[in-house]
Write a structure and sequence with these properties.
alpha+beta, Jelly Rolls, Arc Repressor Mutant, subunit A, 2 domains, 9 strands
Length: 283
């Protein structure tokens, strides 16, 4: 098996592409590697390394044994952690990114510690939409940076940070039943935002009585179920009006309001601005 070190400037393997970055994003690339691929860095690197397997399988060799690196997970080597990973089987297709984590990012990187300094995140904790966001953000962070860095580097860091925030949110939900309960209710509301969402309907979806749902939600959030429904509707409408060329009447309909005038009153009361003033292209 051949070994590739940090000193190899143009390693002879099937690299799809590689980019070198001078700033916070040190290096990144997308590789489709054969059976003889292996990386060994006994002293680790002076930054964090994220690996996102796409197909095939890799293997990380650690002091505690071998750990498979497969699609459906993200992996992270912390700064200074010995790195020894390779293709397992015939091929391994993956994206990777070295970056210097700001101290403020540390809470976003508290994943499952497989062995000391080596972490992973299970993407199955995300719903389909969130998983797509993470994968798209990671790809954009890896691909969008020019060799010159600068503004593109900032944009790439923003995409990476967003991906990590989505993952962190999933971990927070997993570790807090109350937060997970509210999030599950929110997802249902958003998915059926045009519908007439009565407390009775929502209670049935949550497998609770109406009174029990109302009480539990009030205890957790301090607000009523219907206040929460309205908040979801108005927040979605606000996002639509500020990002799309859409009329107030159409936005109201899209989030479940039949009366555009009533929608405008509720919107203005909530945000202190008329929806017509928020419209893209409005004078």
């Amino acid at each position: 098996m051949s070994t590739i070190s940090d000193r190899d400037s143009r390693p002879e393997y099937d690299a799809l592409w590689t980019i070198a970055h001078p700033y916070a994003l040190a290096r990144s690339g997308e590789y489709d590697m054969g059976a003889d691929y292996r990386i060994r860095r006994p002293q680790g690197s002076a930054d964090d390394l994220l690996i996102c397997p796409l197909s095939g399988m890799g293997v990380a060799r650690t002091a505690e044994g071998e750990v498979e690196m497969k699609s459906g997970y993200l992996y992270r080597y912390a700064e200074g952690t010995a790195q020894d990973y390779a293709t397992k089987g015939k091929r391994w297709h993956f994206r990777w990114l070295h970056f210097h984590a700001d101290a403020a990012w540390k809470p976003l990187l508290e994943w499952e510690e497989v062995t000391r300094g080596f972490y992973r995140f299970d993407l199955s904790m995300l719903d389909a939409d969130a998983k797509k966001v993470v994968m798209d953000d990671f790809q954009a962070a890896v691909r969008s940076v020019d060799e010159g860095g600068g503004l593109d580097d900032e944009l790439a860091l923003n995409r990476l940070q967003h991906a990590l925030l989505v993952c962190r949110r999933a971990l927070t939900l997993k570790n807090n039943p109350d937060v997970e309960f509210v999030e599950r209710l929110r997802r249902y509301i958003v998915q059926h935002i045009r519908s007439r969402l009565t407390t009775e309907l929502l209670a049935k979806e949550m497998c609770l009585s109406s009174s029990r749902l109302s009480h539990k939600f009030k205890v957790i959030t301090g607000s009523s179920v219907q206040d929460f429904v309205e908040t979801c509707r108005l927040q979605i409408a606000r996002r639509m009006l500020s990002t799309k060329a859409i009329s107030v009447k159409a936005a109201a309909f899209e989030v479940g309001y039949e009366d555009a005038l009533y929608f405008s009153r509720r919107f203005s009361r909530r945000f202190g601005i008329a929806p017509s003033q928020l419209r893209v292209g409005a004078a």
